[in-house]
Amino acid sequence: MGATRKNVEDEVTTGLYRDDLPREWEERLWRMYVASFAHLDNYQDQMCYRHDSFCKALRDADYLKFVVHRGGVPRGLALAVNDLEKAAVAYINPDFLVRRYAREVEEGRFYYVTTIFIDPEDWGMGYVKSLLRAMLSFMKEGRRVAGFDFSEAKEFLAGVIERLSRDEEVGIPVRARRLDAQVYYTLELEEH
């Protein structure tokens, strides 16, 4: 009986790109981004990019593009940048992060994840672990720190990331530390 050969087309891999992301992936990645965030019912828009700014970030060598793909087809993306002025697109206050991570920012070791998503059609396929493994490997090799945010309704994701980081398929344990929170209110007149 012959040895079983793994079909490379079925292999899930995550690549790190700077200025070499294939242009033909841009529109597919944009559609996945919209599908991942446009339907969310949150007070703050979860889509910090519009089409032009998204494609610009994909072409910008300052942004790290972690792309999980299978059979050469992108299935998910994480964008991270250590230029906090560029990271401000995700509604962050750069000065807040500089005060808390002065050395890491000065040394270029603080990255902000401006977006991360898996194609909704591929949820549950294990792509998150591949993406997380690549990102955490990058963090570990340079003793880097990553910041990120999400809606308070999705706060459970910090625990999911911690748990997945300890999974044998990822194997780079991290601890999520909450930095801040923002809560939205309205004032409505009382009826008498």
Topology:
Layout lengths: L11 E6 L8 H12 L13 H9 L3 E8 L2 E9 L2 H4 L6 H7 L1 H5 L3 E9 L8 H15 L3 E3 L8 H11 L26
Keywords:
Aminopeptidase, 7 helices, 33% helix, 18% strand, globular
Overall description:
There is one protein chain. With 192 residues, the protein is an alpha+beta fold. The chain has a single domain (8-149), classed as 3-Layer(aba) Sandwich (Aminopeptidase), CATH 3.40.630.30. The chain is built from seven helices and five strands. It has helices at 26-37, 51-59, 84-87, 94-100, 102-106, 127-141, 156-166, and strands at 12-17, 63-70, 73-81, 110-118, 145-147. The longest helix is centred in the last third of the chain and has 15 residues, at 127-141. The N and C termini lie far apart (84 Å). The model is unreliable at 1-7 and 41-45 (pLDDT under 50).
Structural category:
alpha+beta
Q: Let me know the average pLDDT.
A: 83
CATH class: Alpha Beta
What is the CATH topology descriptor?
Aminopeptidase
Helix content: 25-40%
CATH architecture: 3-Layer(aba) Sandwich
The CATH homologous superfamily is termed: Gcn5-related N-acetyltransferase (GNAT)
Q: What is the general shape?
A: globular
Strand adjacency order, main sheet:
1-2-3-4-5
Report the end-to-end length measured between terminal Cα atoms.
84 Å
Extract low-pLDDT stretches. Answer: 1-7, 41-45
Short description:
Helices cover 33% and strands 18% of the residues. By secondary structure, it is an alpha+beta fold. The protein is globular, with a radius of gyration of 18 Å.
